[in-house]
Write a structure and sequence with these properties.
This protein is an alpha/beta fold. The protein has helices at 2-19, 36-43, 47-50, 59-63, 110-121, 133-141, 156-159, 202-208, 227-235, 246-255, 280-295, 298-306; strands spanning 86-91, 94-95, 99-101, 107-108, 125-130, 147-148, 163-178, 195-198, 221-224, 241-245, 259-261, 267-275. Strands 1, 5, 6, 7, 8, 9, 10, 11 and 12 form a nine-stranded mixed beta sheet that branches. Helix 1 crosses helix 8 (202-208).
Length: 311
């Protein structure tokens, strides 16, 4: 599995260095065409590229954000959840703008808003359960939680443990460095640098993989319980760079002086919702709702509300 991730990374890096000079990292932007290995199979956004791939039911519609794909009527179906009347969302609410705590001690963010609408359409009340990122998938897998929604990247390894819905957003792994850093491009990370990541994330897996597989080796990565702590370590000089998803990266850089995001894109990923493999009815019902919310522009509105696409 690590090998898989690293192969992907190696491909991504080569391509991103060669082809992605720009820093267009909006969550709603279409991923580059090289993203076929894992992401596109499940959730690629370009309709032309994915419609022939026979993804899971409903997938091709959900892919077509902003286009008028066949609007299937959401099948209300018999959906069972871990607690009757409620939809429990496992998340790690330290990942702005996808999930974070608000001033009143509640939860807000892109994922929270989308999940609230999904719950509503299912006739359920959303309950957000905040936990360590590493528990988000296992809690769904073990049947404690209904959905894993946490800016959660679809990958092969996770697909062994949960089913993923169609994708509702894309993310890009980026590199944050101090403004005066001698790290100018991703490749500079291989010069014996220390990299900070959030524990259990794809960024961590890519970076900690062996150099042969495109990573930097475990000895060069320190993992932190959340992104904010990795940023603190960067500011304190304990690590030379932090690899994390682009939107949280932008937010962290905005509130911490002296940091910047490298222009080079690192890895492009798709975010989707993880559902217990034994609950396909819930997954299908969510996919039908996602189709609606994507086609009527709701998902885009929510993304736009939290993401400044002009940056
Ligand atoms: N997209 C990355 C992953 O799936 C990071 C997600 C971290 N999410 C969070 N809520 N802390 O591994």
């Amino acid at each position: 599995m690590k090998k898989y991730a690293a192969l992907l990374l190696a491909g991504m890096m080569a391509l991103s260095l060669a082809a992605c000079g720009s820093s267009t990292t909006s969550s709603s932007s279409a991923p580059a065409e090289e993203k076929k290995e894992e992401a596109a199979v499940e959730t690629g956004e370009q309709t032309e590229a994915t419609q022939t791939e026979a993804p899971e039911p409903g997938a091709e519609q959900a892919e077509t954000a902003g286009t008028e794909a066949a609007a299937e009527t959401a099948a209300p179906a018999e959906v069972t959840t871990v607690s009757p009347g409620e939809l429990h969302m496992a998340t790690n609410a330290a990942f702005p703008p996808y999930e974070m705590t608000d001033d009143a001690g509640g939860y807000e963010g892109i994922d929270v808003e989308i999940a609230t609408l999904i719950a509503e359409k299912l006739g359920l009340t959303l309950v957000v359960d905040d936990m360590e990122f590493g528990s988000v998938i296992t809690s769904v897998q073990s049947g404690k939680e209904d959905i894993a929604m946490a800016g959660l990247t679809v990958n092969e390894e996770r697909k062994q443990n949960v089913d993923f819905t169609d994708s509702y957003a894309t993310g890009v792994q980026v590199v944050i460095v101090p403004e005066d850093s001698d790290i100018a491009v991703v490749d500079d990370l291989s010069n014996d640098k220390m990299i900070g990541c959030q524990d259990g994330t794809t960024g961590y897996f890519y970076c900690s993989d062996t150099p042969e597989n495109g990573g930097y080796g475990e000895d060069h990565v320190i993992s932190y319980p959340n992104g904010a702590m990795a940023i603190e370590a960067l500011k304190a000089g304990k690590v030379d760079a932090v690899v994390i998803d682009n939107e949280p990266a932008k937010q962290f850089v905005a509130v911490n002086e002296g940091l910047k995001i490298l222009e080079t894109e690192y890895v492009i990923e798709n975010y989707a919702i993880g559902v217990n493999k034994e609950n396909p009815a819930l997954r299908d019902a969510i996919n039908n709702i996602l189709v609606e919310l994507i086609n009527d522009g709701t998902v885009q509105q929510i993304l736009d509300k939290y993401i400044n696409t002009n940056e």
